Amino acid sequence: MPIALADLLTEQQVILRLSSRKPANAIREIVDVLASDIGGRKIANPEVFLEQVLARERTHPSIVENGVVFPHARTDLVDEIVIGVGRSRAGIRFGENQHRANLIFVIGVPERLLSDYLVCVGTIARLAKDDAIRSRLLNVETAREFVDALTADSV
Hints:
Blueprint: H1 5-8, E1 14-15, H2 23-36, H3 46-59, E2 68-69, E3 72-74, E4 82-94, E5 99-109, H4 114-129, H5 131-139, H6 143-151
Helix pairs in contact: 2-3, 5-6
């Protein structure tokens, strides 16, 4: 049975005001939050995980759609899917087309959970396409409201 978003995301994994303006720095900021406390899910080596995500971004840049981007790594450094989210009201330019991403979902996934990962990203992407949900995600004031807005319709 696929993993529900509500089981993957806690308010500790959400940064509502990214201080970074460059993609690599924003990804680092999100990985730092993941490394500190992610509800029991662990990244074995956060620095190596960060380098894996950045290496993938260099070779296969993430595509921004609807102001949302999904930098990720398939890695043996995690036993379960891990997700961290950063929000930038101004947006951070990602990828070859340099479109602005307002919501950045950094994801780590073990190879054995590839199908769960695809369901997870598909669910987030579908929710982000919904103007009302995306507007709530961009405008909520607390991390708890962000998680609630993202998970309310995805269970």
